[in-house]
Amino acid sequence: MLPLAATAAPSGKIIIAQGVDPTTLDVMNQQETPASNLGANIFDTLVERDANNKLVPALAAEMPKPVSPTVWEVKLRKGVKFHNGEEFNAESAKFSIERVLKQPRGSAPFRPIDHVEIVDPYTIRIVTKKPWPILVNALTFRQASMYPPKAYKDKDTAYVSKNPIGTGAYKYVRWSKDEEIVLEAFDGHWRGAPRIKTVVFKPIPDDAVRVAALQNGEIDVAVNIPPHLAAIIDKHPKVFLSTAPSIRTIQLMFYTHQFDTKNKLVGPYQGPTADKRVRQAITYALDVDEIVKGVLDGKAVRVATMLTSLHFGFDPALKPIKQDVAKAKKLLAEAGYPNGLDMILNTPQGRYVRDKEVAEAAAGQLTKAGIRATVRAHEF
């Protein structure tokens, strides 16, 4: 949600329903859509994308410029304040970028960054370990949000999650876990005060319940409307359905490493999918086109990798694998599982469009190839 400049004081309230609650409000230390959606209202980034998906400056006064193969200079916007009154400046930008490099769940996209240098109070230089041409794109990620260095000095992720402070259009008010998160308009936002005074995010995991709440006027906005319920909303006289091309991909992901309860690496995963042939068998067992047709009502496009045509690095020459159950069984036998194997298929429920239903359909197809998959759904 982007703030709109307005001359009148903010007023009114809107209620937004997502599938699930965020797991954290420390947006640097996460890789999840619910937290990023909510964080976009509290925090700003140096660069963002406009309505046409074009890269434009936000807290940067102008687009970052390379001054050498491994150094990017960023001029910062002046006169910006955090919700607690701290001034946004070069110290804030350096603190924020270097903090994300230390976050276990958010640092991966920023690993090419080495450190940040302050040139003057409103200019920084981002130094990378090697040439990194897509740095500007990475600066749009929600994990690259700007944080107040004085308020968060020596504070851990749990503290930040309970006390989110940004420069965004809305200030954090309270979080009642699995019930609601309340935000209030920040009159001092650099773009001007937003029109709406109060924004409430509510988690409603069940698709049908979320749509019913929208129809009944209990909520004002609902996200992740499943295709099979979209027609109901489209025909409703008082509800507007908005659709757009998505860069969200749904895929099966394999365990490759094991971690302890403190997210510390223990070692490589030693289960059946550690064998490449088992992973290949799972791929050949799936009829993705049937899942698109039967579960997603044809409102999806199959891709060969995790990248869509809107992603940097997309290669149209790569084609999806076609289902071949006989080949899947042969690969399993070669891997030492002539009688098939049992496995757990973990899936979120309410996080992505029809996520649980997609997993259940995939499990049914895997079973036909001898991979007896048990679905475990998790609300998170």
Description of the molecule:
- The protein has 380 residues and is of the alpha+beta class.
- Among the domains are: 45-154, Dipeptide-binding Protein, Domain 1 (Dipeptide-binding Protein, domain 1); 257-378, Roll (Dipeptide-binding Protein, domain 3), CATH 3.10.105.
- The chain contains 11 helices and 15 strands.
- A 5-stranded mixed β-sheet has the order 8-9-10-1-11, sandwiched between helices. A 4-stranded antiparallel β-sheet has the order 4-5-7-6, covered by helices on one side. Strands 2-3 form a two-stranded antiparallel ribbon.
- Helix 11 (355-368) links the parallel strand 14 (341-348) and strand 15.
- The longest helix has 14 residues, at 355-368.
- The protein is globular and about 65 Å long.
- The relative contact order is 0.14.
- Mean pLDDT is 93; it is low at 1-6.
